[in-house]
Amino acid sequence: MDAVEHGAPDTVRPPGAGVFRALPDESPMSMEVQSLSAMPDTHGRGRVPATEPPMIALRRLAVIGSACLLTAYGAYEMNRVLNSMGVSILGVVLLVLFVLLFQWIALAFTSAVGGFVSLLRQGGLGLGVSRDGTLPALSTRTALLMPTYNESPGRVMAGVRAMYDSLAATGQLDAFDVFILSDTTNPDIWVEEEAAFLALRDATGGHDRIFYRRRPVNTERKAGNIAEWVRRFGGAYPQMVTLDADSLMAGEAVVRIAAAMERHPGVALIQTLPEIVNGTTLFARMQQFAGRVYGPLIAHGIAWWHGAEGNYWGHNAIIRTRAFAEQAGLPHLPGRKPFGGHILSHDFVEAALMRRGGWAIHMVPGLAGSYEESPPSLTDIAIRDRRWCQGNLQHAKVVPTRGLHWVSRMHMLMGIGSYVTSPMWLVFLLAGILISLQSRFEKPEYFGDTKSLYPHWPHVDPEQAKYVFIGTMAILLAPKLMAYVALLFDRAARQGCGGAARAAASILVETLIGGLIAPVAMLIQTSGVLSILMGQDSGWNAQRRDDGGVPFGSIVRSYWRYTLFGLVLGGCAWSVSIPLFLWMTPVLLGLAFAIPLAALTGSRDVGQAFRRAGLLLIPEETSPPDILRRAAAAVAALPPVAPVGDAAHMLLADPALMAAHRAMLPPPRRRGDPINPDLLVGLVKLEEGTAREAAIQSLSRSEKAAILASRDGLDRLRALT
């Protein structure tokens, strides 16, 4: 707990400064933990929000009904492929898996059709939000919340600086405060955060608008970080904008969604569509190109039929603080990790609980000015995916929650499916090989024991299988074609992507390389699902955001098993038949070349070569908007990258930093408070130390963090010579 939580003053007068306040006065707001087994108190709100789009039921019927019809037709055709071999266990398994997987891509296709129509009609805003024109005047206060966990302090503060200046340019800075909410556990990064925070205040003059708070114990991770802020300060801010450490939002975009919240008191959350930017490696550039070209189609589609039952992606969204405090207090799930404990993928659940409480959840994908960054390599995204996978699988315990809207349940089921489909694809692939193997080595019985004029063919019908494959691939790739057509109608976006020809070539490159990566990603996600089912927790690690390459030796150690699997799979296919081997070539190539693929896609040099060739371009890099230029200038102004300094030396060398640091510390331990063993051990080491440098070196990271969070520890450290 920090100082304010215990009622200790968080003000001090550092040398040569006025009254230092790291935080504003508290304005507590009650936030009770919700029950998943009892109906919520909706406080008289109706079941259908006032902002629900008209004829939403017909939209949903069109999307989901069409997907079901497509799936039924696909199942019929697949049954014709398998029916000639008679009923078998493998045939039934293959048909069931095909239906489940086909339904997944069919829903994506029909949703994309809705998005295509919405894009061409220039829809996707709603709630009275406009893309341009005069900015609305605000009458309430909004807090921008920037959670950070062991991130680069300079980059975090550069992003905050860009957003602060962008808000100032709107002329409505008085309506906003910024909170840096640190969950950092590395003591050296923590003190660098404090120094960067003080420098940011001095540079902007935002001493009464930019605030900083670090939690010594990061209970419940980001969800707990936000909830702690709501309970302490939420009463002063009707709205809060939630961000990630790599988030950027233009001031105009923030003002427009804040005004929409003021106009619609029944709306709890408005989610923007964050565009991926600043990618330098080939992998990151593929991600940002796909997000920029395909993302709007997908987002407009789900916004079109989700209506007021939208979803929350955890950042770049504005939330009504009262609705969040009233309905989104997350309980701990029963059982042990990885399925029990606090909820990892909290955003889906928070949106579902607020909608359950009668609040509306909307998305405005047509509003520009919302940005984020992508992990730079397949390895980095696999680490992040492992954590997301565990969080999404946890939702199996949340889906039965009483009172949830069926669309909210669907969000969580789709989130589970986004990971469960990987092992399903793998089993489907293996079952297909086994069926081909059975057909290859099983002695044919054309007429059996009964007299018949027609033979019973004991093999898969290859001609019919070809048509099913072509139809499936057409449905899978059609959204990319629709996104390209929509791009052609958007002159600015088309030119920003290098023109129609280069955009088409970029889609081809992204599709081919993405297709090669897909089987590797399938196995990565499958191993993640299996490890979670075996009880392994993902932990919580900081996300790597720079474009530094992964050592080739690490890539080999991480990906050799996928190469080996691809070679074994190829050998099995070859032993069955050469046509089967050729049919599986895209999958086999991706697996066999997993190591060079991971190395090349994670390379900055390769990524920049594609940029120089005019491929995988996005408008935000060919003509950067104001907020991105501000952020780039703030990052460029940072000092050269250097190893993180030692926190103890930084504090001892800078009296003003030490004074501010002490002002933000928790109060001394009171009788009956929990005992911190790291602090006790650290104090003993300092007591027994004779030289300051040796004493600092003897401290573990957790012990040093405890010492630096204690006034007594700081005094003992300063007393050493």
UniProtKB/TrEMBL annotation:
It is a multi-pass membrane protein. GO terms for molecular function: hexosyltransferase activity. It is an enzyme of class 2 (transferase). It comes from the Bacteria. Signal peptide: none annotated. The chain crosses the membrane at residues 57-76, 88-117, 412-437, 467-489, 501-524, 580-602. It is found in: Cell inner membrane; Cell membrane. GO terms for biological process: glucan biosynthetic process. InterPro entries: Glucans_biosynth_gluTrFase_H, Glyco_trans_2-like, Glycosyltr_2/OpgH_subfam, Nucleotide-diphossugar_trans. Pathway: Glycan metabolism; osmoregulated periplasmic glucan (OPG) biosynthesis. Keywords: Cell inner membrane, Cell membrane, Glycosyltransferase, Membrane, Transferase, Transmembrane, Transmembrane helix. Its EC number is 2.4.1.-. Residues 241-435 form the Glycosyltransferase 2-like domain. GO terms for cellular component: plasma membrane. Belongs to the glycosyltransferase 2 family. OpgH subfamily. Involved in the biosynthesis of osmoregulated periplasmic glucans (OPGs). NCBIfam families: PRK05454.1-3, PRK05454.2-1, PRK05454.2-5. This is Glucans biosynthesis glucosyltransferase H. It comes from Gluconacetobacter tumulisoli. The lineage of its organism: Bacteria, Pseudomonadati, Pseudomonadota, Alphaproteobacteria, Acetobacterales. The gene is mdoH.
